[in-house]
Amino acid sequence: MRRRAITNDCAVPTGDYRRVLGWLALSISALTGILSPLSCHAGTTNFVVRGVLKEVRQEEHQVVISHEDIPHFMKAMTMPFSVKDDAMLTNAAIGDKIAFQLHVTESDSWVDHIEPLAVVERTAGNLAALPNRSVVSEAGLPPISNTSNPLADYKFTNELGEPVSLAEFRGQAIALTFFFTRCPIPQYCPRLSRNFEEVQRKLSAMANAPTNWHLVSITFDPGHDTPEVLRAYATSYHYDHAHWSFLTGPADKIAELARLCDVKVQAESGFFNHNFRTLIIDASNRLRMVFPTSGDLSDAIVQELLKGAATTNQGTPSLASRSRTEANQ
Fold first, then answer.
1. Whole-prediction pTM
2. Cα 92 vs. chain centroid, distance in angstroms?
3. Closest CA to 257 of 318, 166, 324, 162
4. What string of DSSP letters covers 251-264?
5. pLDDT tens, residue by residue, 84-103
């Protein structure tokens, strides 16, 4: 989702008078429920939002907020937001109704101006009398394995509505990740999809590059992400069906596959809280690498796919052998 937005150049200037204006704008927006973006220069979009503070994650520099609808951006849901200024993490207590600003660029997002709604309302009341005046790790399990894995031959459904099993990708180096199309935060699922878009572009443009590689994006929102939705989403990332598949299927099968890949997913208020996993499986069907992050991984994924495409029968244990080991423990 690409939008115009406020840059830091649009921040309210220093000085008491300017701070009053900034507070007044925030207060009025919070009180009246105006959530439309405030924008001036291209680059960043600001939204003024209301919600309830659910959790503070100090180490991750995040807050979890159950927020109201943000028109033309995302529906009401509970989700984590990044915080760049750690001082914001202590501005409100868990359970407080809050007002905050959400800033979104093409590749990043964060929140600030987090204040208890009671404080905002009180400030608005105090200002009302003023005169009128004119913001890489190795872990997890590989999803593709031999026939002892019951999901290897299970027919999921791709973005074209065709039945596809993971076993059909044998002999190819695979990069696999999980996502959902409704995720609006640029550094979460959209970043995973941009990674694959960039990987596809780089490998396709590479001289003498192998052809036995494939990208697999699996949705854990099958109720919404139908093949038609997946195809439209895939097209927005300029996907090449020959090298990139988007899969959906029954919720229980996807949940089982996610568990095997060490992906933890929890549905909450229309949003999916989840960790990140991009798995690299080599051409001999063995797990090569797991990237537990959503950052810019395109170069690293390309290098792992190149190595994986040249692999024959060496590597780490397959899912089936690891599953059997776990069963015997």
1. 0.61
2. 25
3. 166
4. HHHHHHHHHHTT--
5. 988 888 888 999 999 888 98
